[in-house]
Amino acid sequence: MSNTYIGITIGRIYKTFQNVRRTRELWAASFCFSFIMRNINQQLRIQGIKPEDFILPYFEEKEKDKLFNLKGFGFFPDRLIFKSKEGDLKLSIDKSFELLSVEMEKVIDCKKDEIAIYLKNYFQICFIEKSLDDSENARVILALTPYLDTLEQQNKFQAVEPEPNLLFEFFKQINSRKNKSKKSFLYDHYEIEDINGNKRVESLIEIATRELAKNEKVPNYQILINKNLWDENGSDIDVGNNGKDSDTEFLDALIKECARLYPEDKDNPFQTYHKYYCILQADGDKMGTALKGLSSVGDVQVFSNHLTKWAQETYKEVKENYDGVPIYIGGDDLLCIVPVCNGNRTVFDLIQKIDSIFKTEFTSEYPSLSFGLSITYYKYPLAEAFAKAYELLKQAKKEGGNRVAVQIIKHSGSELVSVFDKASGLFKQTLNHFLTLLDDKEAANSSISYKLRENEKVFAQIGLSQERISHFVNHITDSKDEGKTEADYQALSNNNEKFIRLVKDTIYGAYKQKADEVLNKNMDKISEDAMKEIYSMLRIVKFVKGLDDDKS
Q: Could you tell me if 267 and 285 lie in one domain?
């Protein structure tokens, strides 16, 4: 017996993202793609497609109302797979465009019928129908994926965008309330409130300085926001095209206010990293390998449901626990904009938490998650930062997956790239240990990288001996620490001594890890790879601690 399945894909995603300039535009672009796919899903159900006939995304029927009414982020993926039945697919697609045009009419000055025609010309929705026999049914996602990939590639070479570009006008105005009405698109579809209690997609600089908004040391933060970023008509100041660099004006005012309140630099809550925001992307590794191990359509649906649960829990973590802005979390993909630090947590803590949620749903070795993290100066174009994060994600996957590729794009234009294996103790424990010393800048001896580089040849000889490393690091740093255990480390009261201990542990850990990875045990190669990882970690710590030379 055979069954017929339909796979749908929606196009112009990457091209659309390449043209966004601000956070609200990126969020709106992502949400629109998800909104369309959500409504196609709903319309198919109205036409008689049963809940159990959906493969991707699949969720339990009791979750239906909750997921169809999710606010705040794009959840429905760019692909939809279901068991074919009699019905008009084109009608479902047209209806989804009609529903989006109604929402867009709330924001821009254009009639919904004209908007609907525009949407049909802009979005590229393609589908494939394929019959599978009983032996293939369990691999329906794998069977349709190559065809959907081909359709996506064909989309890239199709017609130019229609004019005028109503969609990007909608993205630009997404925070506005037409005729000052509360019933805006965001009112119905967004959850996060800004510092004034308005539903609004905040700017990059607001996200970057998030922890200062809740810091009692900066009581005038809200006043500075309202004066520089948000006008009396309930719109973002930059919408008026008045030539003002509102982000920079706000940041300059914030820095001056912090300097006024805290003349002593050591008490000043403003840090270098408050000028940077993070674009975080994630994607599943070896999904095909995991799917090949499933034996029935029911198993595939359970697999898909685990992805649904991961998306919901991750949204809560990013939004509620880290105060980030989720853009898209669905399927095995994630995209969000978050601050470098938020209170006593860093973006690296967030990555580990997201990874932990994923592992709760998928307890076997595969699938795993890879991450691309672009830590970017606030003036750097958002579309380019997104492209950088995407390239970093591809690099993490290329190097074996289950990795985090990190790039710091500084004001000076210099770029620092690091790739960490999430399974290694260096990423899980050592980096976190370093970052727990955030409150004591003096702990991070700014000359340590120079001292290590100066003695690379020595470490190439002693890198696999923990005792010899300890003695030598003591010698070059004038440290007296001779402890070897975690208890010895915890007992240290001097943060500088703790930092030196961590440097020792990192050196030994990196050399041991690289020795396990390098098959021919070539010591030169082991040393080169180990020192590269050590320098990468120290650069990240130096940046987060505000000890970076780039103070602009």
A: no
Give bridge partners of residue 417 from the DSSP assignment: 407
Q: Which of 169, 191, 213 marks a domain boundary?
A: 191
518 and 464 in a single domain? The answer is: yes
Read off φ and ψ for residue 374, nearest 5 degrees: -105, 110
Whether residues 180 and 290 share a domain: the answer is no
With bands split at pLDDT 50, 70 and 90, how would you rate the model's confidence at 158?
low
Tokens of 300: 């595939």
Q: Which range marks the domain in which residue 250 is found?
A: 192-272
Q: How many CB atoms lie within 10 A of CB 196?
A: 11
Domains identified in the chain, total number: 4
Lowest mean pLDDT of 14-18, 130-134, 270-274, 484-488, name the range: 484-488
Q: Output DSSP code: residue 413.
A: S
What is the C-alpha to C-alpha distance for residues 280 and 299, in angstroms, rounded to an integer? Answer: 30
Residues 213 and 342: their CA atoms lie apart, in Å, by: 10
Q: Which of 137-151, 404-418, 470-484 has the lowest mean pLDDT?
A: 470-484
Half-sphere exposure for 255 (CA within 13 Å, toward CB): 14
* Same domain, yes or no: 278 and 266: no
Overall average pLDDT of the 393-411 stretch: 93
- pLDDT for the residue 180: 57
Residue 54 lies in a domain: yes
Predicted local confidence at residue 440, as pLDDT: 52
Determine if the pTM surpasses 0.85. yes
The reply to whether 187 and 60 lie within a common domain is yes
CA distance 256 to 464: 49
For residues 216 and 268, membership in a common domain is answered with yes
Q: Is 80 exceeded by the pLDDT of residue 441?
A: no
In a domain, 429, yes or no: no
Q: What's the mean pLDDT in 106-122?
A: 92
H or E element that contains 9? strand 2-11
Looking at the structure, do residues 240 and 357 belong to the same domain, yes or no? no
Residue with tokens 């993290």: 373
The closest alpha carbon to 315, from 200, 192, 160, 403, belongs to 192
Residue 428 in any domain: the answer is: no
pLDDT, tens digit, 9 for 90 and up, residues 339-361: 999 988 899 999 999 999 999 99
In this predicted structure, the answer to whether residue 550 has a pLDDT above a threshold of 90 is no
Classified as helix, coil or strand, 494 is coil
